[in-house]
Specification:
The protein is an alpha/beta fold. Helices cover 47% and strands 9% of the residues. Strands 1, 2, 3, 4, 5, 6 and 7 form a seven-stranded mixed sheet that branches.
Length: 405
C-alpha cells in the first residue's frame, strides 16, 4: 500500500506563486528568514511532545512517525544565534517607540522597501533622535550629529524635518516616499495602487504608474497639475510590487493546520497535521495523528519539516528575509495550547504567532490553498472533531503513516 506523497502533490506551489510567477530556481545560502523558520519548527519538534499526556505520547499512529523522522546530520548547528533574535526584537521595539504600536502602514511600507544598509542607517539615526524625547537624555548637538553619522548642518536639517513630521521619510535614509505631495495623498493612494496592481499584476512599474495617474484623476477629481508626480506614483507602484513579492515568498507566512482526510487504498479517516507555506502553497512538513493530541501531531510534522529543509525542492527556494506571520489551528485539545503565545515569545516568535479560535477552524488553510483534494488525498474538515478521525494502527496503516519527504 502506497503512502500519501504529500511533497509531490504540492510541488507546483513551490516553484510558482498563485499567478505562476517563478520565485525559486536558484540556490541561496540560509538567511535570517530561513533561520526564523528553523527556530519555529525546531521549537515545535523539540518541545511540543513534552506537553502531551502519557496516553497521547504512545499513540500507535504517531509513534512510528516520531521514530522515522530525524534532523539530518550536519543540520544541528544551524539555528540562529541568540544575539540575532535579540537584535530583531530590539529593532521592533525601536520602531514601535518611534512610531507607535502597531507600526503605521506608511512606516511599515517604507521600512519593508529599505535595503539592509538603509535600515542600518535608519536605526542609527532613530536611536539618536529618540534621545531628544526625554530632557534627561538629550545629547550635545555635535555629539548627536556624530552619533547619527551626519555633518552638523545635515543634522540640523534632519532634526527639523523630524520635528515637523515624525516619519522614516524625514530621516533621509530612503527615497521610497518623497515628503511633499506624497504624504498629502498617501491614504488615498494606498487603496488605489492595490486596485491598479490587482488589475494588471504583471505590468511594468512604468505602466502601473501611468494607470495609477489615471485612476487618481478619475477617483479624486484632480487635474493633472494637481496630482502626485510620476516619480511619486512610480514609488507607490514599486512598494506595492515589493509587498506582493514578499507575501508570495517562501517563509513569509508559515501556518499549521490540521484536518481529517482519507487516504488512497486505506480504510478509515485520518487526521493530517500539515505545516504549510502560504505564499508558495508548499507542504513543508506533514504527519498523521489524532485530533485529541495536536501537540504531538505538530511535533511529528515539525520533525518531518526539519528533515525536508535540506532536501530538494526546498533547497532551491529563495527564502524571505523575515517570517512575518504564523498561525496554528489546534486540535480539539485547546487547553493543551494555553500559554503558547508566551512560549513562542520566549523563543523569539511571539509577536508573529497566533492561535486560531474559531469552532470551524479545522482545514482553514488546507481549503484555501488546495481545496478539497491534494492529489489522491481527500480532505474532510467536518469530520476532524467528530470522533471518527484517527484510524487504527494495523501493520499497513502504520506504513501509511511514514509520510515520505
Amino acid at each position: 500500500m502506497a503512502a500519501p506523497d504529500w511533497s509531490s502533490s504540492c510541488m507546483a506551489g513551490v516553484s510558482c506563486s498563485r499567478r505562476g510567477r517563478e520565485i525559486g530556481g536558484h540556490k541561496e545560502p540560509f538567511n535570517r528568514g530561513l533561520d526564523e523558520y528553523r527556530l519555529l519548527v525546531g521549537h515545535f519538534s523539540a518541545n511540543m511532545e513534552r506537553h502531551c499526556s502519557t496516553a497521547s505520547r504512545t499513540s500507535p499512529i504517531d509513534t512510528r512517525m516520531a521514530e522515522a523522522t530525524t534532523i539530518p546530520e550536519g543540520e544541528e548547528g544551524t539555528m540562529p544565534a541568540h544575539a540575532d533574535v535579540v537584535r530583531k526584537r530590539s529593532t521592533t521595539r525601536l520602531l514601535e517607540k518611534a512610531f507607535g504600536s502597531p507600526l503605521p502602514q506608511a512606516e511599515e511600507a517604507m521600512w519593508a522597501a529599505m535595503s539592509p544598509a538603509q535600515r542600518a542607517s535608519a536605526i542609527q539615526r532613530l536611536k539618536v533622535l529618540l534621545l531628544f524625547d526625554d530632557e534627561e537624555t538629550v545629547p550635545k548637538v555635535d555629539r548627536a550629529a556624530a552619533d547619527a553619522g551626519l555633518s552638523l548642518n545635515r543634522w540640523y536639517e534632519m532634526h527639523r524635518d523630524w520635528r515637523d513630521n515624525r516619519s522614516l521619510a524625514s530621516i533621509g535614509t530612503s527615497a521610497v516616499m518623497p515628503r511633499s505631495r506624497t504624504l498629502a495623498y498617501h491614504n488615498d493612494l494606498l487603496p488605489l495602487v492595490v486596485e491598479v496592481v490587482d488589475a494588471d499584476p504583471e505590468a511594468s512599474v512604468r505602466k502601473l504608474a501611468m494607470a495609477l495617474d489615471e485612476v487618481v484623476g478619475a477617483r479624486l477629481g484632480l487635474e493633472p497639475e494637481d496630482r502626485p508626480s510620476y516619480n511619486t506614483l512610480r514609488k507607490f507602484a514599486e512598494v506595492e510590487q515589493r509587498r506582493r513579492h514578499r507575501e508570495a515568498s517562501p517563509g513569509n507566512e508559515v501556518v499549521f493546520d490540521c484536518c481529517a482526510c482519507t487516504l488512497p487504498h486505506a480504510e478509515g479517516v485520518f487526521v493530517a497535521y500539515l505545516i504549510l507555506d502560504r505564499g508558495t502553497h508548499a507542504v513543508l512538513g506533514a504527519a498523521l495523528g489524532t485530533a485529541e493530541a495536536s501537540r504531538l501531531g505538530y511535533s511529528n510534522a515539525a520533525k518531518d519539516a526539519l528533515g525536508r529543509i535540506g532536501r530538494k525542492p526546498l533547497t532551491n527556494l529563495s527564502w524571505t528575509e523575515k517570517l512575518a506571520r504564523s498561525q496554528l489551528v489546534p486540535g480539539v485539545d485547546e487547553e493543551a495550547w494555553r500559554g503558547i503565545g508566551q512560549e513562542m515569545a520566549d523563543v523569539g516568535g511571539g509577536g508573529n504567532f497566533q492561535l486560531a479560535q474559531s469552532r470551524r477552524r479545522f482545514g482553514t488553510y488546507v481549503r484555501r490553498l488546495f481545496g478539497d483534494r491534494m492529489g489522491r488525498v481527500k480532505f474532510m474538515p467536518g469530520k476532524t472533531a467528530g470522533g471518527e478521525a484517527g484510524a487504527g494502527a494495523t501493520p499497513n496503516g502504520r506504513k501509511r503513516c511514514a509520510i515520505p519527504g
